[in-house]
Amino acid sequence: MSGNSRHAVLSGGGSSPTIGSVTQNSKNVVSFNGVNQYLVAPASLTSNSMTIFSVYKRNSGSGTGTFGRLFSFWGVSPLDYDNTNSWEVHTSAQSFAGITPPLVGLYRNSTQVAGSTISYGTAYLFSGTLDGGNWSQNNSGVTATGTTSTTSINATSNTLGAGMATGGGDAYFTGWFAEQIVYNRVLTPSEISSVRTYLSNKWGVS
Hints:
CATH class: Mainly Beta
CATH topology: Jelly Rolls
Strand content: 35-45%
Number of domains: 1
Distance between the termini: 23 Å
Largest sheet: 7 strands, antiparallel
Number of helices: 1
Helix content: under 10%
Structural class: mainly beta
């Protein structure tokens, strides 16, 4: 559910993720099977200014989801990874840019912008900020930065996916999401700290 009526729903083929079988900090989370489960929502992202948050756990490298998406954003092009109008934050089971897999990080315009190594079966609190061509991320205290194109995202038909990309296939996520937050602006360091504290207290993940 979204506080701004941009609710995430199942659209098209595939299957809905499940809820009620897994908890984190005694609260239900949304589980994805890494095969055919995902959600999509309308977005309002029209420039390279955004801040995103996720509390998540990737369970394993098995299944079809080699590049399981935390976030998948596509605009004019239906693909989320090969142009400046789109972007993705994936949990890759494959090495990119010399980063030991599995990893989490931003991939845009056919390039791994930045990332850091994660462990399967571990819950993380992730935040990332895109400010023009500058990307910075914090995955439970492990930080990474990188640069990407400064070309602004085209506002036509923006869609935000969770658990997959528009092409499905190797983008399905195996694991769970507890909460995803997207701002269409760059938050200040103080604001980012406040959101991370809220999520940490709520979900028991730092």
